[in-house]
Specification:
alpha+beta, 5-stranded mixed beta barrel, OB fold (Dihydrolipoamide Acetyltransferase, E2P), 15 strands, 7-stranded mixed sheet, 290 residues
Length: 290
């Protein structure tokens, strides 16, 4: 079975630039494989990419999170801005007190107060959940108690009025759920034991990264040589690994299959064992045998 890359369902800014498409990365079997209809799962980001936003009600209906926040940090990610936003108030959904916002549609500055309509995605490859804005240029900058943005989304409306409208018209959702009552994907940060990796991994493979195809500060798409199958039968030779891996070095990698048939690390940390972690590797092999 061919698997999709874990980030094939995320906006291109998160991993691959447009130049990558010309190199055939988006045409490799990892990206183009389509799971059987019985196993296809529409994710929040899948849905949002097909939606036309006509007005404020569309944003309210389809946003995973709606919040008021203040820009507290600005960085760069693959040539596009990455913002650190301190959350002041959640109007729909829930979030951490500080979030990472990946947004190339607008330019913000330190101290800007924003009304954000967001899509949420969590991944083992990123240190924190990934938030992106929906509906194109849908972000409102709050100035003098008013939300300044595009006319169709309520340009110039008083924030008190807008806040009340959003809260009263947001769909009812269970605690901590996303739009359409989905529960957020839960990332396990650290394995509780080596036995956890043996039990919860779909594939455990000894491999050597041979060539970097693309990368960012967190994750690297690499072509690998499979040395030994320890659990399962991984056939993919282009996989995502943490950015710290070194070409030519041998690793034991633990991967799991998500419900949407993408492959990802079993846990955010501890799923890639280097040659310096021989004791953990031996214990892992013993746990697989048991």
């Amino acid at each position: 079975m061919k698997y999709k890359l874990a980030f094939s369902i995320v906006l291109p800014i998160l991993l691959l630039t447009s130049s990558s498409e010309s190199n055939g990365i988006h045409n490799n079997p990892l990206n183009n494989s389509t799971p059987p209809a019985s196993k296809q799962k529409s994710t929040s980001i899948d849905r949002l990419s097909k939606v036309h936003y006509e007005n404020l009600d569309d944003l309210i209906l389809r946003a995973d999170n709606i919040l008021i926040g203040q820009v507290s940090g600005i960085g760069e990610f693959k040539g596009s801005p990455k913002y650190e936003v301190e959350v002041k108030e959640n109007l729909a959904g829930s979030s951490d007190s500080v979030i990472d916002l990946y947004d190339s549609s607008d330019e913000y500055h330190i101290g800007d107060e924003l009304l954000l309509f967001l899509s949420y995605f969590a991944s083992e490859y990123y240190p924190r959940p990934v938030y992106t804005t929906i509906g194109g240029k849908s972000t409102h900058v709050i100035r003098d108690g008013k939300a300044i943005g595009l006319e169709k989304y309520g340009n110039g409306r008083e924030m008190n009025e807008l806040r009340e409208y959003i809260v009263s018209n947001s769909p009812n959702r269970p605690e901590k759920s996303l739009a359409h009552n989905e529960l957020p994907y839960q990332v396990v940060d650290e394995p509780e034991s080596i036995a956890y990796l043996a039990q919860h991994s779909t594939f455990i493979t000894r491999l050597v990264p041979k060539r970097v195809i693309d990368q960012n500060e967190y994750v690297t798409l690499v072509e690998v040589e499979i040395v030994e199958q320890l659990k399962g039968g991984l056939t993919e030779t282009k996989i995502l690994l943490p950015a710290y891996i070194e070409i030519g070095k041998e690793y034991v990698v633990c991967l799991k299959e998500r419900e949407d048939l993408t492959l990802t690390l079993t846990t955010r940390n501890g799923s890639v064992l280097s040659e310096q972690e021989k004791d953990d590797q031996r214990e892992l092999i013993e746990q697989i045998a048991n």
